[in-house]
Specification:
The strands form three sheets. The chain has a seven-stranded parallel beta sheet with strand order 7-6-5-12-8-13-11, sandwiched between helices. Strands 1-4-2-3 form a four-stranded mixed beta sheet, with helices on both faces. The chain folds into two domains: 50-160, 60s Ribosomal Protein L30, Chain: A (2-Layer Sandwich); 166-339, SPOUT methyltransferase, trefoil knot domain (Alpha/beta knot, 3-Layer(aba) Sandwich). With 340 residues, the protein is an alpha/beta fold. 34% of the residues are buried. It is 39% helix and 17% strand. It contains 15 helices and 13 strands. The protein has helices spanning 6-9, 14-21, 47-55, 64-71, 75-81, 89-97, 109-112, 116-130, 140-145, 166-170, 184-197, 214-220, 235-244, 295-300, 318-339; strands at residues 83-87, 104-107, 135-137, 155-160, 174-178, 200-205, 229-233, 249-254, 261-263, 266-267, 270-272, 282-286, 303-306.
């Protein structure tokens, strides 16, 4: 059936008709003309490869930097490398301000732009990346593999173990000795309280929860970088450190009503935490959540520190007891300073 339309009405040769249909602005249809046809889609020019070459985008889980950070999630590799994982906007921000910067920092720009804090950190990370300071962008898939959380924030760093000197610990007025405390949340909360109040050092005995565990680091929310801490301590070491700090009163925190035996036939004198003179250098022992302080810790104490509980509860969570002590000490120090 012959085609009916402008093709048969335009007149002239076929070549002239095609030329006329190709003129700019011509909207008449011609079966041999492509003026109204949509251009064929072209294959993309591999933008990821261009970005990877230009900006150092990490896309492979076998990348040495990604693998190094991922291995730090395990305790054995963490202590072999003497680095730990700081994950999230706040923690990485604190890590970047620490005296010893992270070895590697990986970030997902698309994740960081979702929040104002993330955007501010992203600008800093881009500067460090351009300055070749061990900072690299990575895909969302890579970042998920480096995360120990359900909802990664898109930034992770490999941070050197912290190095506190004996004089850093000795400068504090309050010294908290955590004797085989096991719960990561308890340790993280104690660290945050110590950071908030200031003037507090932490001593972890052998057998305590790992100070650099990802759960402890997250719970501490940056306190690791602020609170002087001594790890893997045995009691002769602790006694030496406390003597250097001028500590004379060593209090064994307890909220129960029963006497705490030090040795056969001997119990420690008691003191309420309201009655302690916290302006003096003081050490407080916080025992294991289930079993309390060990015999060696009890023998080192000079008094049992009682925290009143008139409501009748049997005991307090370790982090709650430690926080009460920390802020009572702060209250006294603040009041004493105001009176001078």
């Amino acid at each position: 059936m012959p085609f009916k339309g402008n093709y048969n009405k335009s007149g002239g040769s076929q070549k002239q008709r095609q030329s006329s249909d190709l003129r700019p602005g011509n909207t008449h249809f011609h079966p041999n003309s492509y003026s109204n046809a949509k251009p064929k889609p072209q294959a993309p020019k591999a933008p990821v490869q261009v970005e990877e070459k230009q900006f150092g985008l990490i896309t492979s889980p076998d990348n040495d930097k990604a693998r190094f950070i991922r291995n730090l999630l395990g305790k054995k590799d963490r202590y072999a490398a003497r680095h730990f994982v700081a994950e999230g906007v706040r923690l990485v921000g604190e890590a970047l301000r620490a005296p010893r910067p992270p070895m590697y920092t990986l970030y997902d720009p698309d994740a960081l732009v979702k929040t104002e804090d993330g955007q501010r950190l992203l600008m800093r990370l881009i500067e460090l990346h351009e300055d070749k300071k061990g900072v690299f962008p990575a895909t969302a898939r890579i970042m998920e593999g480096l995360s120990d959380t359900v909802s990664p924030q898109g930034v992770t760093a490999a941070v050197p173990f912290l190095q506190w000197k004996p004089e850093d610990l000795a400068a504090s007025k309050l010294h908290l000795i955590l004797d085989e405390v096991q719960d990561p949340g308890n340790l993280g909360t104690i660290l945050r309280s110590a950071w908030a109040a200031g003037d507090t050092s932490i001593y972890l005995t052998e057998g305590s929860v790992d100070f650099y565990s990802p759960k402890v680091v997250r719970a501490g929310m940056g306190a690791h970088f602020k609170v002087p801490a001594a790890l893997g301590q045995v009691w002769p070491q602790i006694a030496e450190n406390l003597a250097t700090a001028g500590v004379e009163q060593i209090l064994l925190a307890d909220s129960g009503e029963e006497d705490i035996p030090v040795s056969k036939g001997k119990t420690l004198p008691e003191v309420s935490y309201y009655e302690v003179d916290w302006s003096k250098p003081t050490a407080v022992i916080i025992g294991n959540e289930a079993h309390g302080a060990r015999a060696e810790a009890r023998r080192s104490a000079t008094h049992v520190l009682r925290i009143p509980m008139p409501g009748g509860a049997e005991s307090l969570n370790a982090s709650v007891a430690a926080s009460l002590v920390i802020f009572e000490a702060l209250r006294q120090r603040t009041q004493s300073g105001a009176e001078k």
